[in-house]
Amino acid sequence: MFVFSFKKGWNPDGKHCYVTGGSSGLGLALAKILVAKGAHVSIVARDQAKLDAALVEMEAARVSPSQKLQAKSADLLSATASTAALEAVCELHDGAAPDAVFTCAGSSKPMFFVEMTEQDMKDGMDYGYWVQAWTVWAVTKMLVKQKKRGAKICMVSSMLGLMSFAGYASYAPAKHALRGLADTLQSEFMLYDIESQIFFPPTIYSPGYVTENKTKPDVIKKIEGTDEGLTPEQAAQGMLKGFVRGDNHISADLLTDIFRAGTRGSAPRVNFVFEAIYDFISYVGVPIWRRSVDGAIRGHREEHDKYLHLRGFFG
Amino acid sequence: MFVFSFKKGWNPDGKHCYVTGGSSGLGLALAKILVAKGAHVSIVARDQAKLDAALVEMEAARVSPSQKLQAKSADLLSATASTAALEAVCELHDGAAPDAVFTCAGSSKPMFFVEMTEQDMKDGMDYGYWVQAWTVWAVTKMLVKQKKRGAKICMVSSMLGLMSFAGYASYAPAKHALRGLADTLQSEFMLYDIESQIFFPPTIYSPGYVTENKTKPDVIKKIEGTDEGLTPEQAAQGMLKGFVRGDNHISADLLTDIFRAGTRGSAPRVNFVFEAIYDFISYVGVPIWRRSVDGAIRGHREEHDKYLHLRGFFG
């Protein structure tokens, strides 16, 4: 029998999966799927009440009494806290490093660049990049120290880690940075037999999305108007599909597939034939897409000027 | 007569150009070219002795006695310091915002991810991203407040802002982040008639490169072995050529042209025909390039394990 794929599958059954940002949205949806597939799942997030509720949902998905499920509160914005959170969830596993890590923590606050304070800029990098990078940093050290082979780390970037447009000057840099980290590690992890993967979700209809829309300028909402999003469950299914298949760059919807093909860089290909087609679509289609976005922004100039005056920007 | 290019030229003569990282390498080479073309040039960097020497070189390139040339010492790692440095160089121009800004400041410290300390990771983002982002942030506010039309801001990323490989886990994320910022602003700046551009240089044989090679792991040197670099003068000429032409993504050597075409994302095209060719080369060639890089890294496993033991990594 011919085998057309060289990529090994991956089975969550009996594996210890560490999911950050696991109390809601994509992280929780993913945690529940992993539990239903027999994994030991540890989630961390900040809010204890949300964690408690999430753990109840995870328990409901349990398929075996031997599964170890836990939910711990942690702030992941520093190296120290991220290391402590990792060590805390590994205690239940006698200190052994996790088999799979999914860094789903993060949030976004779209707004106009000229209105961003120093804190807004820093928050963008903290909640878009460091909240995941510190966990990756801590986990990698642990995996290499324990000489654990075959582990997988999957970060969560965004379609805005592949492209960007107005409104995301604090978020897109952080999501691009995650991509830079994942692509570096994809190469470097060959030294240790660890895999680095990264997911680029489109809009996810999550609690975070609701929060994000509160500060999102109208012109951005207009640009995004036609984009179709995914439910957290759809996004988690798509993420896990690519994760299991071993895709280094994972996308779960056609629009992101196309952007991914047009900005693949040096990342390993998912499918040489499909990506050539998507790349062609991207080559021809993206400039057309750009034209409509550019038009929307240029058409917003006058209104934006009035808006800045009203906000007292000109002093 | 037919005009095949829709892009306006840009002439440095009489313009105020603000160059960060202007005391050495790319920044200094660029500053001297701008002076020779009649611009008022302000450079900032940290080291006063280097600034003094740079100013002497700039004075030697002067073409008119009315040119205002200055060199000021500043640390650009915070919003406050970057704003202060900007305001200081604008004093000589009665507080008017610069016509063109080139953020050439930055440095890189390649090393293995598992050996990076918390400080190494933070430094990577500080010296790769924030050292430029804060200036862009401060300049943009100033330009928009003064309603200055037609200004141009050019950041300096790296070929490692388009792709990455082992050794650059603190640098590639920062250089990718700059790209995310530039692409966001390219779109958002349409609200103000400002232009956001970004340069992706390959290896530049600068003082920074000499420093960087001191910590660079051997396996990385091996991967980079065949890459040809540019002198600071060559890089500055290439950067300025793309800057004048209005390219949003600027590259100055064939290898980066190819990587740029293969990871253009939603950025405006430089040349629809050439990029299609480069994209094809990238599509076929990059996986071949990857194979040799992957081979070099995999072949380094055993030696790396010995190295980590010697360094006491396993405790």
Instruction: Tell me what portion of residues of chain A adopts beta-strand conformation.
Output: 5-15%
Write the element-wise H/E pattern of chain A from the N-terminal end onward: EHEHEHEHEHEHHHEHHH
Largest sheet of chain A: 7 strands, parallel
Overall spatial form of chain A:
globular
Name the chain pair whose interface involves the most residues: A-B, 72 and 73 residues
Q: What's the count of strands of chain A?
A: 7
**So how many helices of chain A?**
11
**Fourth-tier CATH superfamily name of chain A:** NAD(P)-binding Rossmann-like Domain
Helix content of chain A: 40-55%
Number of domains of chain A: 1
CATH architecture descriptor text of chain A: 3-Layer(aba) Sandwich
How far is it from the N-terminal to the C-terminal residue of chain A, by CA? 74 Å
**What is the oligomeric state here?**
homodimer
Estimated radius of gyration of chain A: 20 Å
Average residue-wise pLDDT of chain A:
93
Which structural class should the secondary elements of chain A be placed in? Answer: alpha/beta
What is the CATH domain class of chain A?
Alpha Beta
Task: Look up the CATH topology of chain A.
Answer: Rossmann fold
Low-confidence stretches of chain A at least 5 residues in length (pLDDT < 50)?
Answer: 1-7
In what order do the strands lie side by side in the largest sheet of chain A?
3-2-1-4-5-6-7
